[in-house]
UniProtKB/TrEMBL annotation:
Occurrences of domain Glycoside hydrolase family 31 N-terminal (ranges): 59-226
GO biological process, one term: carbohydrate metabolic process
Domain named Glycosyl hydrolase family 31 C-terminal: residues: 610-724
Glycoside hydrolase family 31 TIM barrel domain boundaries: 269-601
Protein name, UniProt field: DUF5110 domain-containing protein
Domain DUF5110: 740-808
Keywords: Glycosidase, Hydrolase, Signal
Length: 854
C-alpha cells in the first residue's frame, strides 16, 4: 500500500471515504444561501429533549443521564431513526431531570452534571461540565458539513487538550496530532502508524488539566478522525454515510467517562476464571500427538497453564466446524483427556463457511436452506475465497442467521466439552484485492429495535465482526445457559465488549511490537474492552530468546496472557530456549498464578464498572502534577488494577538507564517488599526538549527514580496503602490452593483492598453465590489497625486461615502484640521490614490492633 506523509494523510483519507472537507469560515454545506443567517426555531421541548429546526436541518439534544448528552441531526427534515448496534436501548431511553437554560444567543438545557447549548443562528453546539466550563464546542461554521451523503463534525481544541481512545491504533496513547481511519481490516504484519486496523471504535476521551470528557460517534460507515493535523486548533471527524448521532460524556474524571461510555454501550460480561490463566497456542499444532506432548511438557516442567488453543490446522481442509480425522482421530477423547489434566480447549471457528453444495457439509447445507448468507445485488449468494477455498458468509445482521450460526456449536464442540471459541478473520477478511467483501454486497437487517430493510456492506462492514461475536456468544448461552461463554474475536465495533474478548491481531516478533503492545492494550481498555491481550512473543516470524522472555514477563500483567505464533515459525513454548530462559519465564507465570485473587477481583470490578484491568496512569491519577497526563512522560508504564505499577523500559531492547515516574504517594518494590526511598521530584519534558519540575501541591507531586535494565527483571511497584490478596501456587485455576489465603499489606497512613471470588464458571454469582470482602486499616504512632470486614455473599471460599504480611514496618526489641484474633506464626523480617502472622478465617468482621513494640 502506498504510504502518505503525515501532512497528506487527511487528504488521502478524504479521497478514500468521500467525507467532505469544508474550508474554514465557509457557510455550512447544509445551509441554503437564503437561510445562512436565518435563525433556528424551537420545535419542542419534551421531557429530557430539546429540538430545533432551520430549513431541512433538525437538531435534537437529549440528556440521558446527568453526565451523558445525545445529539441527533437530521439533514432531510427528519431525525435519524433511533437505532443502534452499539448503544443499549435502555441507555438510549434513559431520561435525566433537566432544566431549561436558554440565552439570547442559544437554546439550552442543563442537568446537575452539565449543560448543552445550540446557537440560534449557526446551530453550533457547545457542551459545558458541571463547573460551567466549556468542554466541547463546534467550530463557528456550524454543527456539521456535508457532501450530501457523508458528513463531518468540527470541534475546537485548546492547546492543552490530549486525546485518548479509538481502540487499537498504532500510535502513541495520545492521539493528538494524528489522523485515524476506521475500516475493519485484516492487517497482517501491521507496522507502526499503519491505518486502518482490525476494529472500529469511534469513541475518544478528551483530557485537559485533570478533567475529561468523552465523545462517541455512533456510525458504522467508514470514518476518519483528525485531531489537529489539518488545523492545529480543531478536531474533525465524520463518516462516509449514515446518520449524525453522537454522545457526549461530561466526566469530570477519566474514570467517570469510561464508566459512562460502558454504561451506554455495555460492559464486558464476567469471563470464566480460567481465562486469567496462562494460555499456549500456535498456528497450528499439526496433530493430536503434538498437542498431548505440549500439555505433558507444561505439567512436567511445572509451568502453570490453563488453556491450549486449536488454530485452523485441526480442521478438515480448513473448513469450520470440522475436524481433520487423520491428524486428530480421537478429538473428543483428546479434549476430555486435556480437561482431566486441567486444560481448557479453545478452538477456532472462522465465519466463512465452505461453499460445498451437495457435499453433505452441514454448516453450508443448513445455512443455504435458511437463506442465511450474504447476497450480491443481483440476489445471488456472495462467494469469496478464504482458507477453505470458495466460501459463503452468514448474514449476521439478520437474527435468523445468528440463530443458525449459534446452533452450529452444538453437534461437536458443545457435546465434546470444548471450553471456548475463537472468531478470527471476521473483518471480514477475504483473499481478493479488496481484502474484504465488495461494498455493494447486500445484508438483510432483521433485528429487534431496527427497521427491517436491506443495507449495503459499506454500511455494515464495521459492525459485521461484532455481530459474528454476538452470534457465537448468544448461541453458546442458549446451548449452555448456566455457563459463562468464552469468545475471542479479532474485528469489532463499539459495544463488542458485550459479547467477546479481543486481541491486537497479527503482530510481529520485534522489540518495536513489544513496545507498541502497551499503548494498544491500554487504548482498547479505555475503549470498553476490559479483557484484552496480544500474541505474546509476536505472531509473525520468530523472536530471539531474550525478546520472548521479556514479552512473557510483561504479558503476565496483561488481562489475557496467550503465547501464540505463526505457521512456519520456530516453537515458542516457554522451554524452547533452555533452562535459564525457562526458569525466568516460569517465575513470571507463577507470579501471575499467585496473584490470581487480586487479578480476579480486578476482573470482576471491570465487568461491574467498565474500568479496565490495565490502566493508563492518567486514569488512576488524573490530578497528578497539576493534571498532567503522566503517561506522556512515561509511555511504557501502566497500572495493573489500582495497586500495581508496571514499568518496563520504553525501549526494551536497549541497555540504557531510564526514568520511572512514580505517581503521587509512597511506593514499594513488589519483588523485594522494600519501600522506595530514593525518588526525586519528577520533571516534565516540554516540546522544546527542556525540562522543568512538575509543580503541584505535595499530595499530587509525582516522583522519579532511575532504573538500570536487568535481564529477567521487570520493575513492578505497589502503591503504599494497598492490601493485596494472593494465594499459594497452583498449576491451573482448577486446582484448589493448599494453605492459607495471603494478604500483603503495604503500610501507609491509610490502607485498603478488596477480594472477590465465586465458582469461576457459572452465573450463580447473580443469585448471591459470591464472596466479597473489603479490607482497610491505618497506621498511627507505631500502632497498625486492620479491619477485615464481614464478607458479603453466600459463596464459601477455599481458605480456612489467612497469612498476613505487613511491609514497611519497624520493630523494637520488644515483641509485637496482636489483639482481635488468635495469631500464630508471628515473626519479623528485619531485612525486609516485614511482619508475618497467621489468623483464622472468620465470617464476621475481624478487627486487629498490632502494636509494633516500644
Amino acid at each position: 500500500m502506498k504510504r502518505f506523509p503525515l501532512g497528506h494523510v487527511l487528504l488521502a483519507s478524504t479521497i478514500v471515504t468521500g467525507i467532505a472537507m469544508a474550508s474554514v469560515g465557509a457557510a455550512p454545506a447544509w445551509a441554503e444561501p437564503s437561510q445562512a443567517q436565518s435563525a433556528f426555531q424551537l420545535v419542542q421541548r419534551a421531557g429530557n429533549t430539546l429540538t430545533v429546526r432551520k430549513g431541512a436541518v433538525i437538531i435534537e439534544v437529549a440528556a440521558l443521564r446527568d453526565d451523558v448528552f445525545r445529539i441527533r441531526i437530521g439533514r432531510d427534515g427528519t431525525l435519524p431513526r433511533d437505532e443502534s448496534w452499539a448503544a443499549l436501548e435502555n441507555s438510549r431511553n434513559s431520561k435525566a431531570e433537566v432544566r431549561d437554560e436558554d440565552t439570547d444567543p442559544a437554546f439550552g438545557l442543563a442537568t446537575r452534571g452539565g449543560s448543552i447549548q445550540i446557537n440560534r443562528i449557526s446551530g453550533a453546539i457547545s457542551v459545558e461540565n458541571a463547573n460551567h466550563a466549556v468542554i466541547l464546542s463546534d467550530a463557528p461554521s456550524g454543527p456539521f458539513t456535508t457532501d450530501g451523503r457523508g458528513f463531518q463534525l468540527t470541534k475546537m481544541m485548546s492547546p492543552d487538550l490530549h486525546i485518548f481512545g479509538l481502540g487499537d491504533k498504532l500510535a502513541p496513547l495520545d492521539r493528538r496530532g494524528y489522523v485515524s481511519q476506521n475500516w475493519n481490516t485484516d492487517a497482517y504484519t501491521f507496522q507502526e502508524r499503519q491505518e486502518p486496523l482490525y476494529k472500529d471504535i469511534p469513541f475518544f476521551i478528551g483530557y485537559e488539566k485533570g478533567h475529561a470528557y468523552g465523545v462517541f460517534m455512533d456510525n458504522t460507515w467508514r470514518s476518519v478522525f483528525d485531531f489537529g493535523v489539518a488545523h492545529q486548533d480543531r478536531m474533525t471527524f465524520g463518516a462516509a454515510g449514515g446518520a449524525i448521532d453522537y454522545y457526549v460524556m461530561t466526566g469530570p474524571t477519566p474514570k467517570d467517562v469510561v464508566s459512562s461510555y460502558t454504561w451506554l454501550t455495555g460492559r464486558s460480561p464476567m469471563p470464566p476464571r480460567w481465562m486469567f490463566g496462562f494460555q499456549q497456542s500456535r498456528y497450528s499444532y499439526p496433530d493430536e500427538k503434538t498437542v498431548r506432548a505440549i500439555a505433558a511438557r507444561l505439567r512436567k516442567d511445572r509451568l502453570p497453564a490453563d488453556v491450549i488453543w486449536f488454530d485452523i490446522g485441526f480442521q478438515d481442509h480448513n473448513r469450520p466446524f470440522t475436524v481433520d480425522a487423520k491428524a486428530f482421530p480421537h478429538f473428543k477423547e483428546l479434549i476430555a483427556d486435556l480437561a482431566r489434566d486441567n486444560f481448557h480447549s479453545v478452538v477456532i471457528t472462522d465465519l466463512h463457511v465452505a461453499h460445498l453444495p451437495g457435499a453433505h457439509y452441514a454448516p453450508y447445507d443448513l445455512g443455504a436452506a435458511q437463506n442465511a448468507f450474504v447476497h450480491r445485488p443481483d440476489g445471488s449468494v456472495y462467494i469469496g475465497p478464504v482458507w477453505p477455498g470458495p466460501a459463503v458468509f452468514p448474514d449476521f445482521t439478520d437474527q435468523k442467521a445468528r440463530t443458525y450460526w449459534g446452533n452450529l456449536f452444538r453437534e461437536r464442540y458443545i457435546d465434546d466439552n470444548v471450553a471456548g471459541f475463537w472468531n478470527d478473520m471476521n473483518e471480514p477478511s477475504i483473499f481478493t484485492a479488496l481484502k474484504t467483501m465488495p461494498n455493494d454486497n447486500v445484508h438483510h437487517i432483521d433485528e429487534p429495535g431496527f427497521q427491517t430493510r436491506d443495507a449495503t456492506h459499506e454500511e455494515m462492514h464495521n459492525v459485521y465482526g461484532m455481530e459474528n461475536g454476538r452470534a457465537t456468544y448468544e448461541g453458546l448461552l442458549k446451548l449452555k445457559p448456566d455457563q459463562r461463554p468464552f469468545v475471542m474475536m479479532r474485528a469489532s465495533y463499539a459495544g463488542g465488549q458485550r459479547y467477546a474478548t479481543t486481541w491486537t491481531g497479527d503482530n510481529t516478533s520485534t522489540w518495536n511490537h513489544l513496545r507498541l503492545s502497551t499503548p494498544q492494550l491500554l487504548s482498547l481498555g479505555l475503549s470498553g474492552f476490559a479483557y484484552v491481550g496480544d500474541n505474546l512473543g509476536g505472531f509473525v516470524n520468530s523472536p530471539p530468546a531474550d525478546l520472548l522472555t521479556a514479552w512473557l514477563e510483561l504479558g503476565m500483567f496483561n488481562p489475557i496472557a496467550e503465547d501464540h505464533t505463526d505457521l512456519g515459525t520456530r516453537p515458542q513454548e516457554p522451554w524452547v530456549d533452555g533452562k535459564m530462559h525457562e526458569d525466568i519465564r516460569r517465575r513470571y507465570i507463577e507470579e501471575r498464578y499467585r496473584l490470581l485473587p487480586y487479578i480476579y477481583t480486578v476482573g470482576e470490578e471491570a465487568s461491574r464498572t467498565g474500568i479496565p484491568m490495565m490502566r493508563p496512569l492518567f486514569l488512576e491519577f488524573p490530578q497528578a502534577g497539576g493534571g498532567l497526563a503522566l503517561d506522556l512522560q512515561a509511555p511504557s508504564e501502566f497500572m495493573w488494577g489500582a495497586s500495581f505499577l508496571v514499568a518496563p523500559s520504553p525501549f526494551p531492547e536497549e541497555a540504557n538507564d531510564y526514568k520511572i515516574i512514580l505517581p503521587p504517594g509512597a511506593w514499594y518494590d513488589y519483588w523485594s517488599g522494600q519501600k522506595v526511598e530514593n525518588a526525586t521530584a519528577a520533571e516534565a519534558t516540554g516540546n522544546s526538549g527542556t525540562s522543568s519540575a512538575i509543580v503541584a501541591d505535595a499530595s499530587q507531586t509525582p516522583h522519579m527514580i532511575m532504573e538500570h535494565p536487568k535481564f529477567g527483571l521487570l520493575p513492578v511497584f505497589v502503591k503504599a496503602g494497598s492490601i493485596v490478596p494472593r494465594e499459594p501456587l497452583t498449576q491451573s485455576t482448577e486446582e484448589i490452593p493448599q494453605g492459607p489465603l495471603q494478604l500483603s499489606v503495604y503500610a501507609n497512613d491509610t490502607m485498603s483492598g478488596d477480594l472477590y471470588t465465586d465458582d469461576g464458571k457459572t452465573f450463580d454469582f447473580r443469585k448471591g453465590q459470591y464472596f466479597r470482602q473489603h479490607f482497610d486499616g491505618s497506621l498511627t504512632n507505631g500502632t497498625l489497625s486492620l479491619a477485615l470486614e464481614a464478607p458479603q455473599g453466600q459463596y464459601r471460599p477455599w481458605w480456612k486461615s489467612i497469612d498476613v504480611t505487613i511491609y514497611g514496618v519497624s520493630m523494637s526489641a520488644k515483641a509485637p502484640t496482636i489483639e482481635g484474633a488468635k495469631a500464630t506464626n508471628v515473626h519479623f523480617d528485619g531485612k525486609m521490614h516485614a511482619m508475618h502472622f497467621t489468623i483464622p478465617y472468620q465470617v464476621q468482621t475481624t478487627k486487629l490492633t498490632i502494636t509494633m513494640g516500644r
